[in-house]
Design a protein that fits this description.
binds nicotinamide-adenine-dinucleotide, 2 domains, Aldehyde Dehydrogenase, Chain A, domain 1
Amino acid sequence: MLAGTPRVPTPVNEPNLSYLPGSPERKELKARLAAMAAEKIDIPIIIGGREIRTGKVRQAAMPHDHQHVLADWHVAEPGHVRDAIAAAAEAQKEWGRWPLEDRAAVFLRAAELLTTTWRATLNAATMLGQSKTAFQAEIDAASEMIDFWRFNPCFAQELYGEQPISTHAAWNSAEYRPLEGFVYAVTPFNFTSIAGNLPTAPALMGNTVVWKPASSAMLSAYYIMRLLQAAGLPPGVINFVPGDSVEISNILLDSADLAGVHFTGSTPVFHGMWKKVGDNIDRYKNYPRLVGETGGKDFIVAHPSADAQELAVAIARGGFEYQGQKCSAASRVYVPQSLWPGVRDRVVGMMREMQMGDPADFRTFIGAVIDRKSFDKIGGYLDDARRNATIVQGGGAKGERGYFIEPTLVETKDPGYRLMCEEIFGPVVTAHAYPDATWTDLLATVDRTSPYALTGAVFARDGAAIREARHALRNAAGNFYINDKPTGAVVGQQPFGGARASGTNDKAGSKMNLLRWVSARTIKETFAPPRDYKYGYMTEK
Ligand code: NAD
């Protein structure tokens, strides 16, 4: 034990590199993109630090060039999933006893490696495997993941510092124990940083983890695992188990040792997992912690006092960056009729300029959507819009080479229209122009329209209107923006998560989230224990 109380370095948000023409980071990233596109790697399962190759492989391809295979990845079989539970149990004996500063050092080291020598690799993997542009990869795979790994240790230290009061006669303390058993981390395709955060946040708190990465983001997931190993993560603390999601989940959720689920993905999948845990409740040793950040139907609502240009930019960036595949992407927009023609024309002008294609060409603004399933699903919504609404701009889909969907703006007269309610997860924004005088009623419509409550934005210059919207939409979004687009939350600045059908709102990258991965033990030490069982008042009748 160290004779001292070390302090975690005070974190600051990692600045985004610019990738301007001529910059060294641009040169390095371009070189890494070319090298990684030219190779096909083999991705093993990693359990207890051991690489396992089953020979049963699936392929990771580029969404924007789906015949271009980047990797073969080995599919875990049921026995491997059980081995991963055993490896996690074995690793926890040691890891759970490490002092926080030693655990934190692993993730701080990972953050530093990602800031320096690993940055181009994680960004390139995210661009090639998930079709993000250089900027979208940088804010995700580099900056946000670095922030998670630098801020979480600081939050963990603050949490450890929260102690009960003591008296001269007794010293009370809280011990923030890791959970008993393993944590199951299930990660989505759309953010490399979330894939990095979901297994590591519980691990930081002393837990050990079985991690099932998303099949459609396997390249970046594998490099995260390799980076953590390079940073000194001991074998078995995080076990990397790619494979069939239903088969893996059934085994893990049936285990008596399930201590928690750290999930980000779609609402129906989380509902399914929650139900399974409910059905299994009699068999667990503890009540599993269920943390899930799920879908969204994120809104921008504009007041007649809004600035048309600022609003149009928020719609264009908030709706179409990363092809609308952000849980926070603006996908339903409410604009007063007096502003709509001007806003519509501005947005359409921007959409016409957006270049769609391979993100390795840095002029690209729109890449491909993630896979065939998603391409077909979005196509179905576009067909619906052609029949039941007006497509103002876009609407095209081309899947021969890559899964390309044009950025699309739909206009509807019906605020209850399907495309105003359901999560599409593609570059489709649906707008409703409302009569200016119905602002107050409209806010009630925005609140009621969708089951989700993840992000939302109000645009207005009138302070009273902002106050009214902030109150009326209090439960409609876990992240609420005033005169800003509803995407782009920054760790430490806008802790992220939503309620209603959008999740358990445990705010990724915050103390609230870390609290879910510990089980406090209260310890009381009495300095002078009583020596007589009788109380003083009992000496007389
Ligand atoms: P998804 O639900 O299809 O998959 C998420 C993960 O769950 C993947 O690892 C997948 O393999 C696994 N999975 C799929 N079916 C499963 C099953 N039946 N049982 C167990 N696991 C299963 O989601 P996705 O397409 O990867 O990501 C997009 C979704 O994630 C969107 O709904 C989006 O809103 C949501 N999301 C939410 C947040 C947030 O913070 N709220 C952040 C990112 C993404």
